């Protein structure tokens, strides 16, 4: 694949450092409005992560790193800033990974300038990892393929290009992927609102499906791969990702559709043994009881709103990272690639 074709379909950068503050594309407002807002300190970054104004595992790690850099510029108490950012969301390990990386630099005596350079390195390395994964993942896909993705794993969720959506960008650019389907990803609609916005904007033809249409789509033979991202991958290869991923993996197994997880090494958590040990974020039931700010469910009704689930390693065909591809993931292969 040439440089130009690799980099086509790639125009969005949603997390931007502006020298003394962080500018974010507000993901709560897309696709109705492309509206940017500024964070001036670690507390504002924490709030933006908690409210999903910035979301997606790598993107929240990058934003948090910039939050630490701003705290250092303002001579704020660093331990408090690190703790506040860390508590913003529990499941995506990229957040903790980025903060641990900043903490190590603080412990080594880094000043505000060096911490800003570290945050920039985290952002730049994520973009480079995404391009590498795009190449590795697309190479697994045979010509004339159809793919189904879930949630949003693109430029909005990362430094740019994306993880699973990066593989789709690369696979489309290489002419291997002919059909792209995106699940709407209830209740927050990351697929409908964000993935479709990215795909339309970057000129990649795609069709939205209701989440509940996935098994029916697989039965039709239109998709050969399900391609998703991850929020945390345990030492045995179990994958925490957006709620609904697990049921896609079960349906894929039943229909003989292959299942690819695409995530940078910052998503790997070798300190967590299995998916059972991963904390699953529970969000406000109001996200399920309302749509676009309007109550859609009868007053008095209750809801349960876990926003991630765990797909067991045995349902996964391949985990694609920037360090390489793990086929049929399990503890031994994970240890060989990511062990200490
Ligand atoms: O709740 P979100 O929107 O932050 O969840 C995002 C996901 O689950 C993505 O699939 C995952 O972070 C991978 S993004 C490259």
| Annotation, overall tally of beta strands | 16
Q: What value does the average pLDDT take?
A: 96
Largest sheet: 7 strands, mixed
Structure annotation, total helices = 12
Task: Indicate the overall shape.
Answer: globular
Instruction: Determine Rg (CA atoms, Å).
Output: 19 Å
Q: Tell me the strand order in the biggest sheet.
A: 6-5-4-7-10-15-16
Quick recap:
This protein has helices at about 5, 40-50, 55-75, 80-85, 95-105, 110-140, 165-175, 190-200, 215-220, 245-255, 285-290, 330-340, and strands at about 15, 20-25, 35-40, 145-150, 175-185, 205-210, 225-230, 230-235, 240, 260, 270, 290, 295, 310, 320, 325. With about 350 residues, the chain is of the alpha/beta class.
Explain what the structure shows.
This protein has helices at residues 3-7, 42-50, 57-73, 78-86, 93-107, 112-138, 164-173, 190-201, 214-220, 245-255, 286-289, 331-338; strands at 15-17, 22-25, 36-39, 145-149, 177-183, 207-209, 225-228, 232-234, 239-242, 258-262, 268-269, 290-291, 294-295, 308-311, 318-321, 324-327. 39% of the residues lie in helices and 18% in strands. The protein has two domains: 3-129, Up-down Bundle (Four Helix Bundle (Hemerythrin (Met), subunit A)), CATH 1.20.120.420; 134-338, 3-Layer(aba) Sandwich (Rossmann fold), CATH 3.40.50. Strand 15 (318-321) and strand 16 (324-327) form a beta hairpin. The protein contains twelve helices and 16 strands. The protein has 340 residues and is an alpha/beta fold. Residues 1-6 have low confidence and may be disordered. The strands form four sheets. It has a seven-stranded mixed β-sheet with strand order 6-5-4-7-10-15-16, with helices on both faces. The longest helix is centred in the middle third of the chain and has 27 residues, at 112-138. Bound molecules: 5-S-methyl-1-O-phosphono-5-thio-D-ribulose (MRU). Residues 55-58, 92, 151, 153, 157-158, 163, 190, 229-231, 241-242, 307 line the site of 5-S-methyl-1-O-phosphono-5-thio-D-ribulose.
């Amino acid at each position: 694949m040439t440089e130009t074709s690799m980099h086509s379909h790639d125009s969005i950068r949603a997390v931007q450092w502006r020298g003394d503050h962080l500018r974010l594309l507000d993901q709560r407002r897309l696709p109705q409005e492309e509206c940017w807002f500024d964070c001036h300190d670690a507390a504002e970054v924490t709030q933006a992560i908690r409210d999903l104004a910035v979301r997606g595992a790598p993107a929240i790690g990058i934003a948090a790193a910039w939050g630490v850099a701003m705290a250092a510029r303002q001579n704020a108490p660093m331990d408090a800033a690190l703790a506040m950012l860390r508590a913003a969301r529990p499941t995506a390990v990229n957040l903790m990974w980025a903060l641990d990386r900043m903490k190590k630099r603080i412990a080594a005596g880094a000043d505000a300038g060096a911490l800003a350079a570290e945050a920039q390195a985290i952002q730049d390395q994520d973009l480079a990892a995404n391009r590498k994964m795009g190449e590795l993942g697309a190479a697994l896909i045979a010509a004339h393929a159809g793919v189904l993705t879930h949630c949003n794993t693109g430029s909005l969720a990362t430094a740019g290009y994306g993880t699973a959506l990066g593989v789709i960008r690369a696979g489309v650019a290489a002419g291997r992927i002919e059909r792209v389907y995106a699940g709407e990803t209830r209740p927050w609609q990351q697929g409908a609102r964000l993935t479709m916005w990215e795909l339309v904007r970057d000129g990649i033809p795609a069709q939205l499906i209701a989440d509940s249409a996935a098994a029916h789509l697989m039965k039709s033979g239109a998709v050969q791969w399900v391609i998703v991202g991850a929020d945390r991958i345990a030492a045995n290869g179990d994958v925490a990702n957006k709620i609904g991923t697990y049921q896609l993996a079960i349906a894929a197994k039943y229909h003989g559709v292959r299942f690819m997880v695409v995530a940078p090494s910052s998503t790997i958590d070798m300190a967590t043994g299995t998916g059972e040990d991963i904390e699953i974020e529970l969000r406000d039931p109001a996200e399920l009881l309302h749509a676009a700010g309007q109550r859609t469910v009868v007053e008095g009704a209750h809801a349960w709103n876990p926003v991630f689930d765990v797909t067991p390693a045995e349902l996964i065909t391949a985990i694609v990272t920037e360090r390489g591809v793990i086929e049929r993931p399990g503890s031994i292969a994970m240890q060989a690639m990511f062990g200490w």
